[in-house]
UniProtKB/TrEMBL annotation:
Pfam families: p450. GO terms for molecular function: heme binding; iron ion binding; monooxygenase activity; oxidoreductase activity, acting on paired donors, with incorporation or reduction of molecular oxygen. It comes from Chthoniobacter flavus Ellin428. Keywords: Heme, Iron, Metal-binding, Monooxygenase, Oxidoreductase. Gene3D superfamilies: Cytochrome P450. PROSITE patterns: CYTOCHROME_P450 (PS00086). InterPro entries: Cyt_P450, Cyt_P450_B, Cyt_P450_CS, Cyt_P450_sf. It comes from the Bacteria. Belongs to the cytochrome P450 family. This is Cytochrome P450.
């Protein structure tokens, strides 16, 4: 039976490319590790200059602004990335590490006190939201609003509610910048209010594009990595024992879980001119997909790719992308998952899964398992 996380296996081996229909457009999905990597380096051919169109599905109906630095090429990419780097590097600061570790310990202890816990909405969403307040340097209470959004900033509502959700989200982001203007501090929003871009003050629309990505880029991706890892530990109790024996193993184990889960299946680029992509012709401004999840299962790079090897090394996975647009939130995602593993090793003997509803991304040419819609579990204490 084929692996539910890797529906691309056959096409990757046979052709290295899968043409797939997305919203009426035939998009070649690049599947092999080497080809995806090469494409990330060639931004003239595979451009990110396509506001609101790089994601699958596109977000043209739910937001008005371009996301920075994701949806731009150099030189704007270089400048906007550099501008926000100090905040995205905060998860490397000892005080931020200590806060996320304490949060993980607290949430695990709370879960242990309950007969059962729904790990998606009542654990992962809460954990991701509160951890993000430390990165953005805003009060933890602000996370209450973010928790109410559910698993995805836009998609966790029905089709009819999506546009309204987008409008509310934009209004909420504006209110954060307004509040920061009235009461400047050391937070992300005050910082962007004072930022300079292209030699002039950054506009509100540009700042909104940065903030939008800080929320949307790290939401379902982190939630799926957390729940995917908890689901894995539930099914493999010996894995928790293995990490507990030597917590230094947590770092490699998390990388392997990021690879195996591959929370972001793929992302788009556009070809500025008529282009032939592995035998598939792409019209000017037509989309191409860089399929991280397929690259992460490429048997040419990862021996036994469908198996989880918590000590896999080397592990050149591309769960966080590669090159120019390499995920800026990777330090935050790593801190969140490592802190959770640490807290579980300290407090939890095993995770008993009571009910699991796997989430599937369903497209014209594939169906891929990513995270869970619901994951009910009982955490059993070490004591
Ligand atoms: C497991 C969690 C995550 C995964 C799998 C993930 C995946 C990715 C990938 C594959 C890219 C590259 C996109 C491209 O090449 O076009 C990316 C970029 C980005 N991600 Fe993440 N991400 C995660 C967490 C986060 C978090 C927590 C944040 C923010 C708090 C974040 C913010 C960003 C930003 C700002 C970029 C754009 C970087 C640039 O364009 O230079 N991500 N992410």
């Amino acid at each position: 039976m084929s692996c539910p996380f890797d529906p691309f296996e056959q096409k990757r081996k046979e052709a290295g490319v899968l043409p797939c229909d997305f919203e009426g457009e035939r998009v070649p999905m690049i599947l092999r590790h080497a080809d995806v990597k090469a494409a990330t380096k060639d931004w003239h051919k595979y451009s990110s200059d396509a506001p609101r169109r790089l994601s699958f599905p596109t977000e043209e109906d739910v937001r008005s602004m371009r996301q920075f630095p994701l949806e731009v090429d150099p030189p704007d990419h270089t400048e906007s990335r550099k501008l926000v780097e100090p905040f995205f590097a905060r998860p490397k600061l000892p005080e931020v590490i200590a806060k996320v570790e304490a949060l993980a310990r607290r949430l695990v202890a709370d879960a242990l006190r309950q007969d059962s816990v729904e790990l998606v909405r009542d654990f992962a969403v809460v954990y991701q939201s509160k951890a993000l307040t430390y990165m953005l340097n805003v009060p933890e209470e602000e996370a209450d609003v973010w928790i109410s959004w559910g698993t995805h900033v836009y998609r966790d509502v029905d089709a009819a509610g999506k546009i309204e959700r987008g409008r509310q989200f934009e209004a909420y982001l504006n209110s954060l910048f307004d509040r920061a203007l009235a009461n400047p501090g050391e937070d992300f929003f005050s910082y962007l209010n004072q930022a300079t871009f292209q030699g002039r003050p950054m506009t509100r629309v540009e700042a909104l594009g940065i903030a939008n990505l800080a929320f949307a880029g790290g939401r379902d991706t982190v939630i799926n990595a957390v729940t995917g890892s908890l689901g894995y530990l539930g099914g493999n109790p010996q894995a928790l024992e293995y990490l507990r024996e030597d917590p230094k193993r947590i770092v490699n184990a998390c990388e392997e879980l990021f690879r195996h889960i591959s929370s972001l299946t793929h992302i788009g680029r556009v070809c500025p001119v008529d282009t032939e992509v592995m035998g598939v012709s792409v019209k000017p401004q037509g989309k191409v997909s860089l399929c991280w999840s397929s690259a992460n299962y490429d048997e040419a790079v990862f021996p036994n790719p469908h198996e989880v090897h918590l000590d896999r090394k080397p592990n050149a996975h591309m769960a966080f992308g590669f090159g120019l647009h390499l995920c800026l939130g990777a330090p935050q995602a790593r801190l969140v998952l490592r802190s959770l593993m640490k807290a579980l090793c300290e407090q939890v003997q095993r995770i008993e899964i009571l009910k699991a509803e796997q989430h599937f991304e369903v497209e014209a040419e594939y169906r891929r398992a990513v995270g869970y819609d619901a994951l009910l579990a009982k955490l059993v204490s070490l004591e």
